[in-house]
Amino acid sequence: MENLKAFALICTLTPSPDESSSDLMASHILGKLKEQGVTTSSARVVDHNVAPGVQIDMGNGDEWPQLRQQILDADIFLLCTPIWVGHMCSLAQRVFERLDADLSSTDDEGRPIMYNRVALTAVVGNEDGAHHVTAEMHQGLNDIGFTVAAQGGVYWVGEAMQTVDFKDLDEVPDPVASTISSMATNAVHLAKSLKVAPYPAP
């Protein structure tokens, strides 16, 4: 079996190369996947011209089609977002709006085009709302056709009304590190299983 590929789409509002908690969280997860032989890559949505809309290609320099192709080329898709005012950030919402076009896209066998891909999520913030955001992301990804791995979401949320971010920590807290390890292991197992036994055609 050829090596699995993972692609992380990071929805930080901070352009590269500035530090980002979402980017740091993604790097920890991708690092664990690399340890299991997975080839990884990532992109920050904010670094690309992703137009608003619900079509695969909105034209006029829209760069979503290139990001979408990287999702299609991957076996494992990781979506990371910060929390702002209790919700996933605007760029994460835009990703879901753009993925909406693929509700009607199918592969060569007539299956939804995102079938047989594993989804993982990561959420960071310094306020409450991680479970709410994770639930929305998992439901949306499942609707689009991704298979969410068991315990496929990880989050870190700092103390409310404080200024410490995930990137400010000296080390990854043990519960977060343990969850990252488990979700990576589960994602690789599931992706390998879907390679051997993909979902049946309708």
From TrEMBL:
- NADPH-dependent FMN reductase-like domain: from which residue to which, for each copy? 16-156
**Superkingdom of the source species:** Bacteria
Q: Cross-referenced Pfam families, in alphabetical order? A: FMN_red
Record-level Gene Ontology MF annotations = oxidoreductase activity
Name it.
Multimeric flavodoxin WrbA
Transmembrane ranges, per UniProt, are none
